[in-house]
């Protein structure tokens, strides 16, 4: 995999997080807003649900074609998973703010803190990403006072976890992100994974770094149920009880399929494909914009 292909969080070739390439992708996207555009009233208005990389990129390309674009975002900041799913120490999030300024100067309207209700006239594209933490599906997981999804945990800016024992269930990069956040905030962080260390998708460099920060690893531990402040694991056919103050489930990201029921909606990005790279969703946004403009193109004076 070439080095210019960047995941929202990682470089796929090694599994290791890199920040500079992601920042470059965002700045390159912002440079697309510098082109001269002329908005055309004869073209249908474009409504985009979601201000993550897919929604923003699609909005930029449609604006370049002369469409009037409005982006709706339910959070109070744009960026989607780039902002809310990546810890601050991974990359400089100021570039997202710079992107927002450039997008608005281009003529794109961004309305934040607004949830989707119903689509209006024109073209409506859903680009909400894969922003739901997957669940283990075991007993006791709905205990919100003890169990939290990884994305929900990372979205929180501050955590009252200093001196507490935190159990992170999972073996991927999101799991190590959660573990390093908790460790740097003074918690006793342990990653529990159901397979061997060689099966971890966390790269060696990140494992070494996390261990230096105090993160522990417990392997071949399969979670079976949650009970109060305890997690019941199975290892080698025996049950093992682990006490913790917080349990974080970090086994992947999913899509909320129950939100959008209307017809005539178009879908874009991770909410179609599942988690993918930033470059992939930008490419998909460009392709969809080209196709829609070909269908809806009209002559504008």
Question: What can be said about this structure in brief?
Answer:
With 301 residues, this protein is α/β, with parallel strands linked by helices. It has helices at residues 20-31, 53-64, 81-84, 94-106, 150-155, 173-184, 204-212, 270-273, 278-296, and strands at residues 46-49, 69-73, 109-112, 123-126, 132-133, 147-149, 165-169, 188-192, 216-218, 222-227, 230-235, 238-243, 246-249, 253-254, 266-267. Helix 1 (20-31) packs parallel to helix 4 (94-106) and helix 2 packs parallel to helix 9.
Detailed description of the structure:
The protein is α/β, with parallel strands linked by helices. The chain is about 30% helix and about 20% strand. It contains 9 helices and 15 strands. The strands form 4 sheets. The protein has a 5-stranded parallel β-sheet with strand order 3-2-1-4-15, covered by helices on one side. It is elongated, with a radius of gyration of 21 Å.
């Amino acid at each position: 995999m070439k080095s210019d292909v960047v995941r929202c969080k990682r470089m796929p070739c090694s599994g290791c997080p890199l920040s500079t390439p992601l920042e470059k992708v965002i700045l390159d996207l912002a440079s697309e807003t510098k082109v001269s555009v002329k908005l055309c009233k004869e073209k249908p208005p474009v409504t985009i649900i979601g201000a993550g990389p897919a929604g923003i990129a699609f909005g930029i390309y449609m604006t370049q074609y002369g469409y009037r674009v409005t982006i709706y975002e339910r959070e109070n900041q744009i960026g989607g998973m780039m902002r809310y799913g990546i810890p601050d120490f991974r990359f400089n999030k100021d570039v997202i703010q710079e992107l927002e300024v450039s997008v608005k100067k281009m003529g794109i309207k961004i309305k934040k803190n607004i949830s989707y209700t119903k689509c209006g006239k024109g073209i409506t594209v859903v680009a909400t990403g894969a922003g739901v933490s997957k669940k283990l599906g075991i007993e006791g997981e709905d205990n919100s006072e003890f169990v939290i999804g990884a994305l929900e945990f990372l979205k929180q800016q501050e955590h009252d976890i200093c001196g507490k024992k935190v159990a992170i269930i999972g073996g991927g990069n999101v799991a190590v992100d959660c573990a390093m956040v908790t460790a740097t905030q003074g918690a006793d962080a342990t990653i529990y994974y159901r397979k061997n260390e060689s099966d971890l998708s966390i790269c060696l460099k990140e494992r070494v770094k996390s261990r230096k920060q105090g993160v522990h690893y417990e392997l071949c531990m399969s979670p079976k149920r949650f009970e109060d402040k305890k997690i019941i694991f199975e290892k080698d056919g025996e049950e093992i009880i682990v006490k913790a103050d917080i349990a974080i489930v970090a086994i992947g990201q999913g899509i909320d399929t129950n939100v959008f029921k209307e017809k005539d909606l178009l879908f874009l990005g991770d909410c179609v494909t599942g988690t993918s790279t930033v470059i992939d969703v930008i490419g998909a946004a460009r392709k969809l914009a080209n196709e829609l403009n070909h269908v809806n193109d009209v002559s504008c004076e």
